[in-house]
Design goal:
- The protein is built from nine helices and 13 strands.
- The strands form four sheets. A five-stranded parallel sheet has the order 1-2-9-10-11, covered by helices on one side.
- With about 350 residues, it is of the alpha/beta class.
- It has helices at about 55-65, 80-90, 105-115, 165-175, 195-205, 225-235, 250-260, 290-295, 305-310; strands at about 45-50, 70, 100, 120-125, 130-135, 160, 180-185, 190-195, 215-220, 240-245, 270, 315-320, 320.
- Among the domains are: about 30-90 and about 205-270, Aldolase class I (TIM Barrel), CATH 3.20.20.70; about 100-205, CBS-domain (Roll), CATH 3.10.580.10.
- Helices cover about 20% and strands about 15% of the residues.
């Protein structure tokens, strides 16, 4: 990115800049390297926040396979985080994790598990070997207690574990299959691969560590024994430590960072959120530039609202009936003055000049 003036001392968003295309020798978007240089090892700038309902083992596996990184939330017990990290490290770099059931399991069991994975299929296995595949289409208009052995598709196309993604895509297209189980040399199920997964494996590079395993991060809070929890996460094999709190510009946050850095970790340590200008905008302030947000911190309390909120409300339509605005001038009653007492345009008096930041 090229600045036409001096670079500002704060971060920018898309609302603060105007993108102007320039002449470039790049012929394809695939020729651009999006790998980060912050030590996280990601090949694309995508990070999954440490939210309990978002960042789990399935998200961590999928995102790392495409080059991103997921951060396990800080309110998860250490033993669970250790198991999740070990589970993610064992995942294949190309094949997706299959959902497996036995032929004697019911359609109801399959319908519960099908939404758990994007490939939308259950591999029916017997003695560890795939014998059929069940999708949501196979479960339509079928009694929920029907066994999977009666509804599964037996016309299987299996792929060897060492198959190249491009070759796997060609085989799936040639066989008119959307997905196929992946088996090892003994015919045992080790994964599942779809057309979309094979295609994406040729476009994205997975985020892997020094041992060629998928990367995963974990978050810690700033309360309690921070150093002990960080030490256990490092022993579990996390690739990034995120010290997270709601307000990153407090003394306890700095103390937690010193405690974590005192362990001499060999992985990056991130502090979130960054104690910058965006932590100031905690009230509705409309769309502002970073400089405007910084200046808004010294404004009176009534000046936090955008101009539209300080004007008198207009009459709104609700269906076919028009609701009268409380500020609309009404016809005076007989014997009263027609002049309405004026009210100040700003609560608390006219606006006062704001002192400069700092």
């Amino acid at each position: 990115m090229h600045y036409i003036c001096e670079p500002p001392p704060y971060d920018l968003t898309y609302d603060d800049v105007f993108m102007v295309p320039r002449r470039s020798a790049v012929e394809s978007r695939l020729a651009v390297d999006l790998a980060t240089f912050d030590g996280t090892g990601t090949t694309i700038p995508v990070l999954v926040a440490n939210m309990t309902a978002v960042a789990g083992r399935r998200m961590a596996e999928t995102v790392a396979r495409r080059g991103g990184l997921a951060v396990i939330p800080q309110d998860i017990p250490i033993d669970v985080v250790t198991e999740v990290v070990a589970w993610v490290k064992r995942r294949h770099l190309v094949h997706d994790t299959p959902i497996t059931l036995a032929p004697t399991d019911t359609v109801s069991d399959a319908l519960v598990l099908l939404p758990k994975r994007a490939h939308g299929a259950v591999v029916v296995v017997q003695d560890g070997r795939p014998v059929g595949v069940v999708t949501e289409v196979d479960c339509a208009d079928v009694d929920r207690f029907t066994q999977l052995g009666a509804v599964m598709s037996r016309d299987l196309l299996t792929l060897p574990a060492e198959v190249d993604p491009e070759e796997a895509f060609n085989r799936l297209v040639a066989g008119h299959h959307r997905l196929a189980p992946v088996v090892d040399g003994n015919g045992r199920l080790v994964g599942i691969l779809t057309r979309t997964g094979a295609l994406r494996a040729t476009l994205y590079r997975p985020a892997v560590d020094a041992e060629n395993r998928l990367r995963v991060g974990a978050a810690i809070g700033i309360t309690g024994d921070v150093a002990s929890r960080a030490d256990k996460l490092l022993a579990a094999g996390v690739d990034v430590l995120v010290v997270d709190t709601a307000h990153g510009h407090q003394d306890r946050m700095l103390a937690a960072l010193r405690a974590v850095r005192g362990l001499r970790p060999a992985v990056p340590v991130a502090a979130a959120p960054y104690p910058g200008w965006f932590t100031v905008s905690c009230r509705p302030a409309g769309r502002r530039t970073p400089a405007a947000c910084a200046a808004a911190a010294w404004r009176p309390a009534w000046a936090w609202h955008p101009p539209a909120a300080r004007t008198r409300p207009r009459a709104r339509r609700c269906g076919t009936a028009r609701r009268r605005s409380p500020h609309r001038r009404r016809r005076p009653s007989p014997g009263t003055s027609a002049r309405r007492p004026s009210r100040p345009p700003w609560p608390g008096g006219p606006p006062r000049p704001c002192p400069a930041p700092g």
